[in-house]
Specification:
Layout lengths: L3 E2 L11 E4 L3 E2 L2 H11 L4 H4 L1 H4 L11 H15 L2 E2 L2 E14 L8 E13 L4 E12 L7 E11 L9
Parallel strand pairs: 1-4
Antiparallel strand pairs: 2-6, 3-6, 5-8, 6-7, 7-8
């Protein structure tokens, strides 16, 4: 996938995997920082001794931490759209947390563009089927449909759309 594309090329990518991110290690420092930011200090995330007694055998990442990594994964692997002025999160559908991410594991994101449609003079709505793979695991950590808006100057809108 090219590192940069034009707005007129986006719709031709529908149905394709448009990004595969680099691996990110989810360590205890990251988990603890997320716990502090969200005030979610459940022992399964922040207490390695107590978490070792659970079926997980140690701490696991918050599901919302795993979901939030999609932003970094997006910046890492999706092609930049030359005309884009700003990207906006519109939301998620069908978020499913399928497997816990154990502390120390590496994860990476897969992005399949499923829809790209112009909306108004200076916006394009995009939908991605996203999944976060856990290295060495059969099931992904999560799957979701991620909806975003690409904002651009209306003068850059391709003709005929």
């Amino acid at each position: 996938m090219p590192r940069e594309i034009s707005l007129s090329e986006v719709q031709s990518l529908v149905g394709q995997e448009v990004g595969l991110s680099n691996w990110i290690t989810v360590d205890q420092t990251m988990i603890d920082a997320f716990a502090g930011a969200t005030d979610d200090h459940q022992f399964i995330h922040v207490d390695p001794v107590r978490a070792a007694e659970t079926p997980f055998g140690g701490t696991i990442a918050h599901g919302f931490l795993t979901l939030s990594l999609l932003s970094a994964m997006n910046y890492d692997c999706l092609p930049k759209i030359r005309e884009q002025q700003m990207g906006i999160n519109y939301g998620f559908e069908k978020v499913r947390f399928l497997s816990p991410v154990k502390c120390g594991k590496r994860v990476r994101g897969h992005f399949v563009l499923t829809e790209a449609r112009f909306r108004g003079a200076g916006m394009m709505m995009t939908n991605y089927d996203v999944s976060i793979e856990i290295e060495g695991e059969r099931k992904p950590a999560l799957t979701a449909i991620w909806m975003t808006i690409i904002q651009f100057d209306p003068k850059d809108r391709p003709e005929g759309v």
